[in-house]
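Chapter review: from sequence to fold.
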Amino acid sequence: MTNYKIIQKRKIWITISVILFVVFGVALFGWGFKYGIDFTGGSLMEVKFLTERPAADRVTEALKVANPGELIIQPLDEKGMILRFQNTSEETHQAVLKSLGSLAGAGENNSNQVEELRYESVGPSIGEELKRKAVYSIFFVLLGILIYITYSFRKISKPVASWKYGAAAIISMFHDAIITMGVFAVLGKYYGMEINTPFVTAILTVIGYSVHDTIVVFDRIRENLPKSDLDFEGAVNMSVNQTLVRSINTSLTVILTLVAIIIFGGASIRTFALTLTIGIFFGTYSSIFLASPLLVIWEKWKKN
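The C-alpha cell string follows.
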C-alpha cells in the first residue's frame, strides 16, 4: 500500500482550511442568509401551467387584486412557477389561485389550466421560534459530541490527552459547517437562494457525517498507537493512509447519489441535497487533512 506523506505536509492542508474558513466565514457573518418563509413568515405556492406559462409581469399584474403583499415570482422548469408572498391568510391563498386561473384562461388558448403542486404558510412568530430552536439544536449537538468523544477516548492519555481528540473533531466539524453555510450565504447574495428548515436538518446531518468520518480515523490511530514502533506523527500518518481509500470511496458514493438528486430531483429537495453534497465533500477533506494534523500539531507543541 502506498504511504502518502499527508501529515508531513500538514502546513499546506491547514493553510487551505484556514483560507476557506476565513473567506466563507466572512461571507456568512457579513451577508448572512437569505431566509425563506419558514423563518420569515409568509406563503409559498408552487403551480404548474399545463400549456403556456404566462410572463412574470403578467402574473404580478393579475395578482394585485388578491393583495398578496410582497411578491416574489420564480419560473421553474418549462411550465412551473413558484410564488412567495407575504400574506398568509387562506382567503389570500384562494384569491391567488382564482387570479392565476383567470390569467391561465385569458390567453389565445382558453384550454390553459393551472395545477397547484404545493402550498405552505408560516406565520412570523413561528419563523422566529424555528430560528431559535435551530440554534439550540446545533449547540446541544456540538456539546454532546464533545462529551461523547472525550469519553470514548478516555483511555488514551499519551502523548495527546483524550479531550483533544474531541476538540479536534469539534474544530473539524466547525470548519465543515461554517464553510457550508458560507457557501449558502454567497448563493443567497448573488443567486437569491433561500434557506428553510430542511437546510438546518442538512447542516445537522453534515455535522454528524463529519464527526463519523473523523472518528473512523481516530479509532484507527487508537488501534495503531500501542503496537506501532513509529513515533506519534508516523502512527497518525499510517492510520490516515489506512482509512484514506475507505473514506474517499464512501463519500464519493454518497455524493454521486446527491448529485443525481440535485439534477433530477424536485425543487423542494434540491437545496437539502446541495447542502449535503457540499458538507460531505468538506467533511471528508477535514477528517483526513485537518483533524488528524491538529493532533500532531498539539503533540509537537507539548514537546516544545
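Two observations follow directly from the output. Residues 232-264 form the longest helix (33 residues). The two ends are 33 Å apart (CA to CA).
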